[in-house]
C-alpha cells in the first residue's frame, strides 16, 4: 500500500506542475501579444530610417565619425541581449553558443589579448559570460523588468561616445530575432562603423525607390549628422524588442511542451497506479481464498 501512496503523491505533484505550466503559458501568450505589437509598430520606422541612412551615406561626402572605418580593428565591443528569466527552452543557450562561436572564429585574438569587451543585457547573459570570465565592462540585469527606450538610448549614447573617441573600432549586437512564435533567428550584427553600402544591399529592390529623387534641406551632411546617432540607437532598441518578443514566444512553446509532457506522465502514473491497485486487490483475494481453504481442510 506504501507503493500506491507514493504513486498517488506523484500523480498529485505532476498535476500541480501541469497547472503551473499551463498558467505560465497563458501569461507568456498575453505578454507575447503586447511584445509583438511594440515590435511590429517599430519595424516600419526602423526600415525607413535604414533606407534614409543608406541613401544619405551613399550620396554624401560627409566625414561623420560614425562612418569611420579604421585601418585595424584594435578593440571590439559586443552587446549581448539575453533574457532576465529562464523557463524558455534553449532561447538563451542557443544564442550564447552562436556568440561564442563568432568570437572563436573572428575575434579569438582580441579575446586572448583582452581587447574584446562585452555589455550584457539581461540576467542570463550576465551570469553566463561572467562564469566564463569574459571581460564584461557593463551589465544590465533586470533590463526587461521595465523595458523603456530611454535606458536603451542611454546605453547606446555611451557606446557612441566610446566609438567616436576611437576607443572602440567595431561594435556588434547579438540577439534573437523574432521569426515565428516557435522559432527565432540568432543574429550577430555590426552596428559601428555604419556601412551605407551594406545597408543598401539589404534593402528590398523597389523600382519606385530607384527612380525617386530627393532634395535635402539644409544639406545631406547636416541631416546625416543628426540621423546617424538615432539610427544606431534604433538598432539596439530593435534588438531588445525582437528579443523580448522571441523570449515570450519561446517561453510559451516551452510551457506548452512541459504541459503536454506532464499530461503524458500523469497518464502513465495513473496506469501504474491502477495496475498496482489491481495487483494488491488480486493478492488480497488470493490470501482470503487460501485462508478459507485452509479453514475448510482443518
Provide a descriptive summary of the structure in words:
The protein is an alpha/beta fold and 298 residues long. It has one domain: Pyruvate Kinase, Chain: A, domain 1. The protein has helices at residues 2-59, 91-106, 108-113, 123-131, 149-164, 196-202, 207-211, 220-297, and strands spanning 76-81, 116-121, 136-140, 170-180, 183-192. Strands 3-2-1-4-5 form a 5-stranded mixed sheet, sandwiched between helices. Strand 2 (116-121), helix 4 (123-131) and strand 3 form a beta-alpha-beta unit. Mean pLDDT is 86; it is low at 204-211.
CATH class: Alpha Beta
Tell me which CATH architecture applies here: 3-Layer(aba) Sandwich
General form: elongated
Q: End-to-end distance, in Å?
A: 31 Å
Count of beta strands: 5
- DSSP summary: helix tally: 8
Strand order of the largest sheet: 3-2-1-4-5
CATH topology: Pyruvate Kinase, Chain: A, domain 1
Whole-number radius of gyration?
Answer: 29 Å
The mean pLDDT is 86
Low-confidence regions: 204-211
* Helix-and-strand structural type: alpha/beta
SSE arrangement, N to C: HEHHEHEHEEHHH
CATH superfamily placement: ATP synthase, F1 complex, gamma subunit
How large a portion of the residues is in β-strands, by DSSP E?
5-15%
What is the number of independent domains?
1
Give helix % range.
55-70%
User: What is the makeup of the main sheet?
Assistant: 5 strands, mixed
Amino acid at each position: 500500500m506504501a507503493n500506491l501512496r507514493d504513486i498517488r503523491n506523484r500523480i498529485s505533484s505532476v498535476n500541480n506542475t501541469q497547472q503551473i505550466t499551463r498558467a505560465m503559458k497563458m501569461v507568456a501568450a498575453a505578454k507575447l501579444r503586447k511584445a509583438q505589437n511594440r515590435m511590429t509598430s517599430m519595424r516600419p520606422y526602423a526600415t525607413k530610417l535604414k533606407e534614409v541612412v543608406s541613401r544619405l551615406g551613399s550620396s554624401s561626402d560627409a566625414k561623420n565619425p560614425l562612418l569611420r572605418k579604421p585601418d585595424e580593428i584594435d578593440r571590439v565591443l559586443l552587446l549581448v541581449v539575453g533574457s532576465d528569466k529562464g523557463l524558455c527552452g534553449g532561447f538563451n543557450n542557443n544564442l550564447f553558443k552562436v556568440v561564442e562561436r563568432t568570437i572563436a572564429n573572428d575575434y579569438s585574438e582580441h579575446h586572448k589579448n583582452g581587447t574584446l569587451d562585452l555589455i550584457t543585457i539581461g540576467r542570463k547573459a550576465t551570469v553566463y559570460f561572467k562564469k566564463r570570465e569574459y571581460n564584461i565592462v557593463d551589465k544590465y540585469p533586470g533590463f526587461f523588468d521595465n523595458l523603456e527606450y530611454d535606458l536603451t538610448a542611454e546605453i547606446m549614447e555611451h557606446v557612441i561616445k566610446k566609438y567616436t573617441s576611437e576607443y572602440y573600432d567595431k561594435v556588434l549586437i547579438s540577439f534573437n530575432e523574432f521569426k515565428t512564435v516557435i522559432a527565432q533567428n540568432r543574429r550577430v550584427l555590426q552596428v559601428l562603423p555604419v556601412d551605407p553600402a551594406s545597408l543598401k544591399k539589404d534593402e528590398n529592390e523597389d523600382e519606385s525607390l530607384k527612380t525617386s529623387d530627393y532634395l535635402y534641406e539644409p544639406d545631406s551632411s547636416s541631416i546625416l549628422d543628426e540621423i546617424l546617432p538615432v539610427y544606431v540607437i534604433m538598432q539596439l532598441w530593435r534588438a531588445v524588442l525582437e528579443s523580448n518578443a522571441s523570449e515570450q514566444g519561446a517561453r510559451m512553446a516551452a510551457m506548452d511542451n512541459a504541459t503536454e509532457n506532464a499530461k503524458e506522465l500523469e497518464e502513465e502514473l495513473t496506469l501504474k497506479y491502477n495496475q498496482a491497485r489491481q495487483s494488491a486487490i488480486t493478492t488480497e483475494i488470493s490470501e482470503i481464498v487460501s485462508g478459507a481453504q485452509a479453514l475448510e481442510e482443518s
